[in-house]
């Protein structure tokens, strides 16, 4: 007699963040890399242009699970009061491919992307209080502030945004959370130990010639070959770190538009965990988002649910 497939549980944005806080998401990304995950072997993202923007399909598998994220990128949505990123993640049992759980896709993305950045930041920056310059005021910006705080102390946070009212509101929320935060001024780039770019900008945000020699830059705002947040000067000055060379050379406009190809040294995230890092020249970590990150964080959330609610959570 065949079994009746159980109905998979859906994790809303609130439920996901309750079951898997930022420090646990960072640990899940680090644990996947420590276990020998090869970022270069991750399946390529499929992107399909549609009238509203793009549809993205991101499948991955691990020893225990398989999963796929279907995401939409709708640039006009914010003007309608709707999220720019939409979608759902489906987690499957690895042996049977039976559905185990679904997740709010934007919430999963807003959790795993800062977690990936945090792993890089922990490796690339000195373990001391940092002056941080943040570009952006949206969900990824908020997530990256949380992620930076999980691995480093923020001595001062400066925020640069396109909308003065939104930027001021973001700064106010950071101050209320106990951070020394302020709106960025023109000298902020040169004074920053860490520059974090979390925007949908299609052109560079700052002049890379102004970066301090010891600065680290994290750029995660785009996955399109013709779009970039950092300029050619930054890329030419910096040591370059990526999630995977394969993904970066397909999608990272920040690097491709600056002339980077397979001849340039790109250190991937797995290699970075054990690499010796020079801190006398700028360092750039460019991420585009990869499917292995989704499954690592979704699997960690599923495991926590199973441990907290034995007998209720679907596990096969």
TrEMBL record:
Coiled coil: none annotated. Pfam families: OCD_Mu_crystall. It comes from the Bacteria. One of its GO terms (cellular component) is cytoplasm. PANTHER family: KETIMINE REDUCTASE MU-CRYSTALLIN. This is Ornithine cyclodeaminase. It comes from Actinocatenispora sera.
């Amino acid at each position: 007699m065949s079994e009746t497939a159980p109905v998979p549980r859906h994790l809303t944005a609130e439920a996901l963040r309750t079951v898997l806080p930022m420090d646990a998401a960072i640990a899940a990304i680090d644990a996947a890399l420590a276990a020998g995950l090869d970022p270069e072997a991750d399946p390529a993202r499929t992107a399909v242009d549609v009238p509203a923007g793009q549809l993205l399909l991101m499948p991955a598998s691990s020893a225990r699970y398989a999963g796929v994220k279907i995401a939409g990128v709708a640039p006009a949505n914010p003007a309608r009061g709707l999220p720019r990123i939409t979608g759902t993640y489906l987690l499957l049992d690895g042996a049977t491919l039976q559905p185990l759980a679904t997740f709010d896709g934007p919430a999963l993305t807003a959790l795993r992307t800062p977690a990936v950045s945090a792993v890089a930041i922990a490796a690339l920056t000195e373990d001391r209080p940092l002056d941080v310059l943040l570009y952006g005021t949206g969900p990824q910006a908020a997530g990256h502030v949380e992620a930076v705080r999980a691995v480093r102390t923020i001595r001062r946070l400066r925020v640069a945004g396109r909308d003065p009212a939104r930027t001021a509101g973001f700064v106010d929320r950071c101050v209320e959370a106990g951070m020394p935060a302020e709106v960025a001024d023109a000298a902020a780039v040169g004074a920053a130990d860490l520059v974090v770019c979390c925007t949908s900008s299609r052109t560079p945000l700052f002049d890379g010639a102004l970066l301090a020699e010891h600065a680290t830059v994290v750029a995660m705002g785009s996955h399109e070959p013709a779009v970039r947040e950092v300029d050619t000067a930054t890329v030419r000055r910096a040591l370059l770190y990526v999630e995977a060379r394969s993904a970066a050379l397909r999608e990272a406009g920040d690097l491709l538009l600056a002339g980077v190809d397979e001849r340039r040294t790109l250190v991937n995230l797995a290699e970075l965990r054990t690499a010796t890092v020079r801190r006398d020249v700028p360092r750039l970590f460019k991420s585009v988002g990869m499917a292995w990150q989704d499954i690592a964080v979704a699997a960690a959330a599923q495991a926590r649910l199973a441990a907290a609610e034995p007998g209720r959570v679907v596990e096969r």
